[in-house]
Amino acid sequence: MTSKATYRFDDDALQALQASLASYFGHVRHAASYRLIVGILEQHPWLRVFFAIDPANCRLQRRDRPPADPLNVLGQYRHWCEVFPHDEVWIQVGAFVERLQWPPRHLRHPSPTPDGTVVPPDGMRRMRPTARGSVCDFPLPQLPRKLSGRIASGCSVVLIAQSEASAGRMRQRKPVRRWVPG
């Protein structure tokens, strides 16, 4: 069994943590505090999972905030790829979890095995790229099985889930969990 670290993006807890850290950083900002803040970040590296932190200016920015004006799912996906550049981003679209291609480019399908089957190296079902750039998908109930396979292969994964609320026609999506191999 592969061990992993799981980070949950709980809105209320992150809001309270951000308020506490902003208050603390606001007090120490008036002193020569750069080394103090860097020391806090080194002692608690998990803070960088939830916040983009500028130690020089003592500024915090939550990493789970959705893009301000997404035009489509690909725009949302691009935003999350920029926020989590070292993770594999999976995004919920309806009853499916998809991995899109960002930046968009032509993907070759894997070669067949000697018995004629085609199995992608990541175990996800390949599909023709859609208009939004989706190249792999699976039904939401298969998430635990697919996730354990990706974690076992050493990939960190962030799941972007859709909410019931929508901005116009577009559903809002934001991270709910991040898994990192341990």
Outline of the structure:
This protein has 182 residues and is α+β, with helices and mostly antiparallel strands.
Overall description:
With 182 residues, the protein is an alpha+beta fold. The chain has 2 domains: 4-62, no CATH class; 73-181, MutS, DNA mismatch repair protein, domain I, CATH 3.40.1170.10. It is 29% helix and 30% strand. The protein has 5 helices and 9 strands. The protein has helices at residues 11-28, 34-43, 47-50, 73-83, 143-152; strands at residues 4-8, 51-54, 59-62, 88-93, 96-100, 125-126, 134-139, 157-167, 170-181. It has a 7-stranded mixed β-sheet with strand order 1-9-8-4-5-7-6, with helices on both faces. A hairpin with a 2-residue loop joins strand 4 (88-93) and strand 5 (96-100). The longest helix is centred in the first third of the chain and has 18 residues, at 11-28. The radius of gyration is 19 Å and the shape is globular.
- CATH topology term of the largest domain: MutS, DNA mismatch repair protein, domain I
Number of strands: 9
Morphology: globular
CATH level 1 class label of the largest domain: Alpha Beta
The neighbouring-strand order within the major sheet is: 1-9-8-4-5-7-6
Low-pLDDT stretches: none
Number of helices: 5
Supply the CATH superfamily name of the largest domain. DNA repair protein MutS, domain I
Major beta sheet summary: 7 strands, mixed
Mean of residue pLDDT?
Answer: 79
**Series of secondary-structure elements, N-terminal to C-terminal:** EHHHEEHEEEEHEE
Give the helix/strand class: alpha+beta
Q: Strand percentage, roughly?
A: 25-35%
